[in-house]
Design brief:
Elongation Factor Tu (Ef-tu), domain 3, about 240 residues, 2 domains, alpha+beta, Threonyl-tRNA Synthetase, Chain A, domain 2, six-stranded antiparallel barrel, four-stranded antiparallel sheet
Length: about 240
Amino acid sequence: MTELLFRDAYLREAAAKVVGHTPEGGLILDASLFYANSGGQPGDSGWLDWDGGSARIATAVKGEGGAIVLVPEAPEALPGPGTEVRQRLDWDRRYRHMRVHTALHLLSVVIPLPVTGGQIGAERGRLDFDMPEPPADLAAIEAALNDLVARDLSVTDDWITDAELEANPGLVKTMSVRPPMGQGRVRLVRIGQGADQIDLQPCGGTHVARTGEIGRLRLGKIEKKGRQNRRVSLELAD
């Protein structure tokens, strides 16, 4: 398995060692700073440097056996197994993903309905809800989102076992995306502490450390997607 360096969401550069290549031209390291595309969050992009060369990394995807595969932007000669490399994130893009991802957790608080899907981008994101009727007051939803941002609540994580999650199904808000299980334990993302806690749910993605980092949010359109599903979009206002 690849060591998941992106668990420290604010780490921008890190060393690693090449352990192999994929038949498609991807690169596998012993430790990845790059988040792999999953759970509606895109894979990270950035750069890989080594003695005598460098490559632009377009994205990262999940490989076999818990490996993370870095996908170069263009076909080119890559360092062989055993080579020491330096990973550098496209930090601006990653950080905007973090802001949008945490904002979507807030959206699931403001609209307390089952989530049927979602997608994270660098400028905007969306959640699909099991929502037979559209909300009556969109301005109130936007105001509630920005109030949670302004409260500057802490965003932290905890871990529970797979068995504990199975025994507490109410923690899972998503109907279509299964929580990241199978390794014996599951990461929970908590927003707020103690009496100020507003959310706790399984999540393997990257987040900001405090809701104040999200910045002002703007609620987008609400689209009907099927008989009971509605898509709610939001975007970073700055």
